[in-house]
Structure prediction request, 758 residues.
Amino acid sequence: MKDISEIPYETDLRNSIHALPVAEVYRVLASGLNGLSRDEVAARRKIFGYNAIRDVRRKSLFIKFLGNFTHVMAILLWVGGIFAFVARLPQLGWAIWAVIVINGVFSFWQEFKAEKAMEALRRLLPVSVTVLREGGQQKIPAEELVPGDVILVVEGDHISADGRLVQESELRVDQSALSGESHPLRKTAETVQQTGMACSELPNLVFAGTSVASGNGRAVVFATGMETEFGKIARLTLSIEEELSPLQKEINRMTRVVTALAVGIGVVFFILSVIVLQRPLSSGFLFALGMVVAFVPEGLLPTVTLALAMGVQRMAKRNALIKKLSSVETLGSCTVICTDKTGTLTQNEMTVRDIWVAGRRFSVSGSGYAPVGRFAEKNKVVEHPVTGELRQLLIASSLCNDSRIIPPDETVSSWTVLGDPTEAALKVTALKGGVDPEQESEKLPRLRDIPFDSRRKRMSTIHEYRGIPGWEGACDFSGANLESGMIVFVKGAPKEILTLSTSIRIAGEDRPLTDEICAEVIRANDEYAGGGLRVLAVAWRPLSPGLGDYTAENVEHDLVFLGLIAMLDPPREEVAEAVERCRRAGIRVVMITGDYGLTAESIARRIGIVGSGQPRLISGPELDAMDDAALRTALEGEIIFARVAPEHKLRVVSLLQEAGNVVAVTGDGVNDAPALKKADIGVAMGLSGADVAKESADMVLADDNFASIVNAIEEGRGVYANIKKFVAYIFTSNMPEAWPFILQIMLNVPLALTVMQI
Prediction:
């Protein structure tokens, strides 16, 4: 066994392990098929430590409490109270100090109610994990994993560390916590030689903090704790210091100005009282001290706090939960919103919109995963249930499928899905057309499948046609030549499926796939793709008798093309109006997403983020190649960022802030945490957001809706306007209060009100 100290744990292994054969993976990690021994685990833990995320640096409640009494304005009032006692005005001193105490307690309580202490980064890692050690399976605490451990993952498991797959069966992993995109990704144990892919995109790697959507697998751990992709994001988040809000910065600046003016006025009045009124020095000093106290705006602090608190309450009624009072005014000052796409601008529910089959086009109504909707051809509703080639297409797409549709029950009020949302959308569409996937599965039970992979860009399932009497009419493929009693359904990328097809199903018979028909299919595909729809093609064929080896090469050829299915994650209905309100208010909206560029551009056009011109699409790798000057120039025009990593989002936010913008950032995943913390106002999703995203944010959306951000900005601007009016009143009222003292000094007119009365 290799010496543990020689394991290339750092960057060189992370950047190359995906390209190694399985046997080499075991060798470089000094592991084996039977896992590690107890002694090896103990030795590695001494080197690599526990598989844990370091605690987020968080201020204690006591420090937060003291912070409400030690900011610049509070310090000015504390000093003003001391001056009042020195000036023999104890009642005034106690009154000023009471203002500070009441205001501080109120502010702390408001923020304490909205912001509960969470150890989100630690809690996202699972509590236990199944591992192979000394040849047997063991369930151990996740923090005890070390590099070289062989972990076993099954559907529903959370993954505890970064690992290289060495074995898998139909494994799909939900990486939304890292990538922000909710589509489960197909994983493979094969080597990947392709370059230019982000680490999280590599199909043979699994990552801490993600979860298994379906299938099972086995992986060798190569990174734990803070060295995982999850840990890298945690480290990036920890490195960002909290900054003062625009309101806090402005109040601090104003406090310095007020202090200088008050002291200056006190000096002037001291000189005038001693020289003009011939008062003793002690009397003149106390008089001047009283004037200094009178000019301290003790009413400003409670006024601002109450205005912000009322804004918080109004925002809560509009689904925006504010964690810090100062964030209310920051929203009102916002000039740029950097928003992700999935779940914020869109519904995060794939929905089939259009179908091309046998030269005919059908539209499909309804949204979400509820199987409610109709088929229409040229605006004419199709009879239910659907028949012919359309029905065959729906059967094939719902059987070549690993998802599950879950109806509402006493715990969940809406339809939900397990598995890939794209596959779920196909089953929902079948139900809309009167096709029951469960019943069809009984007629054509699945025997085996060939999972989807990125090289083939397709998935195949092989089914048995038993030929039971009475099924001939019920099975929609009974008219085909099913000599072997076997049939294969294939779905995948349109051009790939078209290349493998030799005929097409039209009017109940298989016709040759001519160049003209191919051109028509490609034209329909391009139209759907140009509209931002994701397009899948579906085909089938009967299998020859005696086919022994059901490999992709043996079954995926001479297919009968059935049609195209086009779907999208639809924008939220209210988002377009919200974006237009932003435009009218002078707020710019920039989309930063982990999705593909063309899909992002299509959604951006639908909701009005980009106009009629051609926006610039910048991907993560392109962003890496740009210097700050080039990126600043690009940010001046219409721009969409796609396939970006957490550090890319953080960089964009930083440059926007350097240009003088007040930036709001939306996010829901672990990958969004650094940018949420860096932003002037971080906005996390309350329904779909990870705990660490909510922890890093200043505001949480109870409904995950972009329109709620715009509503909150409206409230923030109203609060900002009110604070401006209050400040103007407080300072203008000081002058009328000062005039009697000026007249007394200049003309020896008796005071109408004493300093204490004022």
In short: The radius of gyration is 33 Å. The chain is about 40% helix and 20% strand. Residues 706-747 form the longest helix (42 residues).
